Amino acid sequence: LYYMRQHEKPGPVSFNSLEMNIQDLRPGDYRLTIGITDQGTGQSVSSSRGFRVLESYLTLAYRDYDKAVRQLRYIASERELRTLRQAEEEERLRLFRQFWIARDPTPGTKRNEALTEYYRRIEYANEVFDVPQLEGWATDRGMVYITLGLPDHVEREEFTGGSKPVEVWVYNSMRLRLLFRDDTGFGDYTLVNRQEYLERVQMRRGRMR
């Protein structure tokens, strides 16, 4: 981004403000540098400061609504997803916001803990489980982490001979062992016992209602 403005200097001291639209910036670390040059004297000064752009659920919905809706597939019902997908453009942000308001465990407070934790897990999954051509949240390991959290421990078996690398995620409190296998060799571990996982997730959702 680069902005340049010229202002009349009313006296020895003047004040100006600059507004920047950061909605199109991807999440990450940035550095803002501001330089000022007095055209009369030729003197220049500059100042620089870093800042971080976090992935806001409303920013994501504004920038890439289809992706924002896809990311809800682990917790939204088919009916909710259909409503969001079919929403008119002017209704999208309102319905997206309402989806999370309905899941706020502490209504009336500024913080929505369910929303904060969900997108924290998505960010973590993107950092740890991403593979070529696929963001971490969309992988099988990302899916399991987002819905169940970190396992109590992980058992790994590396490639030997004709076997494929595997990971076993163990959740002691749920008495659940999930087997992931890397069939491609690129780190994209596929959940082998998917049906067992889906049944367990459905049970958890039923208890939370």
How much of the residues is beta strand, in percent?
A: 15-25%
First-residue to last-residue Cα separation: 47 Å
E-strand count? 6
Cα shape: elongated
SSE-based structural type: alpha+beta
Task: Tally the helices.
Answer: 7
Which residue ranges are poorly predicted, with pLDDT under 50 across at least 5 consecutive positions? none
Helix-strand string: EEHHHHHHEEEEH
Walkthrough of the structure:
β3 (153-157) and β4 (166-171) form a beta hairpin. The mean pLDDT is 86. It is built from seven helices and six strands; from the N terminus they run ββααααααββββα. The longest helix is centred in the middle third of the chain and has 16 residues, at 113-128. The strands form two sheets. It has a four-stranded antiparallel β-sheet with strand order 3-4-5-6. Strands 1-2 form a two-stranded antiparallel sheet. The chain has 209 residues and is α+β, with helices and mostly antiparallel strands.
List keywords for this structure.
209 residues, alpha+beta, 4-stranded antiparallel beta sheet, two-stranded antiparallel sheet, 7 helices, 6 strands, elongated
How would you concisely characterize the structure shown here?
With 209 residues, this protein is α+β, with helices and mostly antiparallel strands. 34% of the residues lie in helices and 20% in strands. The model has no long low-confidence stretch (mean pLDDT 86).
How do the strands and helices of this protein lay out in sequence?
Blueprint: E1 28-37, E2 44-53, H1 57-63, H2 65-70, H3 78-85, H4 92-101, H5 113-128, H6 140-148, E3 153-157, E4 166-171, E5 176-182, E6 189-191, H7 194-208
